[in-house]
Design a protein that fits this description.
Blueprint (H helix, E strand, L loop, with lengths): L1 H5 L20 H7 L21 H10 L28 H4 L11 H4 L13 H4 L18 H14 L2 E2 L2 E2 L31 H28 L4 H31 L6 E2 L2 E2 L26 H11 L29
Antiparallel strand pairs: 1-2, 3-4
Length: about 350
């Protein structure tokens, strides 16, 4: 029985040759063949291999580059023959379309006119300034008080700054302590007690308290947000009042600016320079004359007119340009014997 089992023939026939290699029998090929037959979408657009340049343009570019061009049967074309140059031989589009446009027939483009924009009339500063060309000095400019009036006014100013109990007004003096009551200070260093280190339970309790406070604050903020829905009318009225207030403030600023411009541009910066102010023409007591015969004129009429033109915005503010000396002066020292 055992011998019969050992010499039994196999069911599959014995292969006498190796099968031919084929890719279709690979496992990977079988897996790919079971997938969808729809081709995958490419990751990026592929460039078309077709050239967008026509044959005539390509030949013309080759003629410009002075490169050999091949004709029929791969024969090289002669660049000196007619039509082999870089110039175009065909008739241009302007010649082909000639005669199709009538110059005397009006078209839409001929009737089109550019709209003219009117320049806004913003006015000038000189129209807002209302000051006389010649400013009249103050009535007290020519007042010459007597000597006793000057001394009286000086004494009044001194009385305002009078010394109160040996100390000027507005000055505070520390009180001087007696020697017995003086406190003796020492340079002893006060030691600060270091805080004890918190335990784990204390830190956890503090973190819990902070979380509760944060939750209460968020709840209060949410409640205020919900309550603000019912106050839309009041908020709208407040916004309208704020807008009206800002408009009134803007109008007030404009009015103040107009009132300031009516007094001229003295002291204001206009452009690169600042408009000068009128100088106060005064004389000290030593220069005052006792009679009109000895009276000396004060000021400069030309300078006054020049400053007045600047303040009334008739000319731009300027500064006097002094002539500059190109070379320095040379000093020569002469000896006494040269003067003889």
């Amino acid at each position: 029985m055992v011998l019969g089992l050992m010499f039994t023939l196999p069911l599959n026939p014995v292969r006498r040759f190796i099968p031919r290699y084929s890719k279709s029998q690979l496992t990977s090929t079988k897996i790919l063949s079971e997938r969808s037959a729809v081709p995958a979408v490419p990751s990026r657009a592929t460039k078309s291999t077709q050239s967008k340049i026509s044959r005539a343009d390509k030949e013309r570019l080759l003629r410009i580059a002075r490169r050999p061009r091949k004709g029929p049967f791969n024969a090289v074309m002669d660049p000196t023959e007619f039509g082999a140059g870089s110039a175009a031989i065909d008739v241009s589009d302007a010649v082909k379309n000639s005669g199709g446009h009538d110059l005397w027939t009006p078209t839409f483009e001929d009737n089109f006119q550019i709209p003219t924009i009117k320049k806004p009339d913003l006015g000038h500063l000189r129209d807002k300034i209302d000051i006389p060309a010649v400013s009249v000095p103050h009535q007290g400019a020519s007042y010459n008080p007597p000597a006793y009036k000057v001394e009286q006014r000086r004494q009044e100013e001194a009385d305002k700054l009078a010394v109160v109990e040996g100390v000027p007004a507005g000055m505070v003096v520390d009180e001087i302590q007696d020697e017995e009551e003086a406190v003796i200070t020492t340079d002893a260093v006060v030691s600060r007690k270091q805080p004890a280190r918190k335990t784990k339970q204390q830190r956890a309790r503090m973190a819990k308290q902070r979380g509760e406070k944060r939750a209460l604050a968020e709840k209060a903020a949410r409640k205020r947000l919900l309550n603000s829905i019912y106050t839309i009318k009041s908020l709208r009225s407040e916004a309208v009042k704020a807008a009206d207030a800002s408009e009134q403030a803007r109008l007030a600023r404009q009015l103040a600016l107009r009132l300031k411009l009516r007094k001229g541009l003295a002291g204001q910066r206009l452009g690169k320079h600042r408009v000068p102010e009128n100088d106060i023409e005064v004389q000290i007591g030593e220069d005052l004359s006792e009679s009109l015969r000895n009276l000396k004129p004060e000021g400069n009429l030309f300078r006054d007119r020049f400053v007045s033109l600047q303040q009334r915005a008739l000319i731009e503010p300027r500064v006097p340009v002094l002539p500059k000396r190109k070379s320095k002066l040379k000093e020569y020292e002469k000896h006494a014997m040269e003067t003889l």
